[in-house]
Amino acid sequence: MFRTAANVRSYRELRQYERPMDRVLIVDNEIEIVNLVTNYLWVEGFEVESAADGQQGIRRSLSGRYLLVILGVSIPDFNGFDVLRRIRAESSVPILILTASNDDANRILGLESGADDYLPTPLNPRELIARIRAILRRSQLLPQATVQSSSDWLAVGDLELDKAAWVVRRANERVDLTTVEFQLLETLLRSAGRVLTRQELAEKVLGRHFSPFDRSVDMHVSNLRRKLGSGMDGSDRIKTIRGVGYIYAKPSGGQPKASPMETRYMAWSGGTRG
Fold it and tell me: Is the full-model pTM beyond 0.70?
């Protein structure tokens, strides 16, 4: 059902007595797309606001008021990918980009620039909602607890992932990752030394079935490799198994590193890990 002035007023009057809706920002100057997205999401319980140019889109995306940003790649005054990079430089707000159905280059560039996912136009309403909900499920896994369990902390070689603090460190230096990259790395580290198929990664990290023509997993792995750099021995941390998927390589030799919890215990007890 599309909105009319009457039913919008009635809906807003009802909503005054309920909690505020989840707010989404769409940055696009194509009125037809803005209206379609607004109506699709309104039916699903989202409040949608729009920005028609890049400068306004950047400013509002960085305001902290939105659960998610939907970004068209063709907008006035800024290239859409420049807008994406400007937002990503200062914020981890989830971003879904809209690209033409046959535009592989833009989809790849968007993922390389930090987008969480993409959706081809013309839009499929069910796919739009499914992609948004999958992105939000991932982003809302950000930890709230202050107590850290051993399963919150992973270490392979010089790389440490602290899920409770949502921090990754390489050789004790912090590495900034997007939500997707963080969860991709966590998935790989938990299975270090074992091959994970693209299908497994798509389901666990992106929340959807893998399509042979979907390069999202490959692009997120590529971005992750670039940010993590080489392993301690100069080899790739994440190795490609052609035609299958990826494996996070375990460094050879050495005793596993103690977690912060184990380190505190050993300091207190004066003992060693058995």
Answer: no
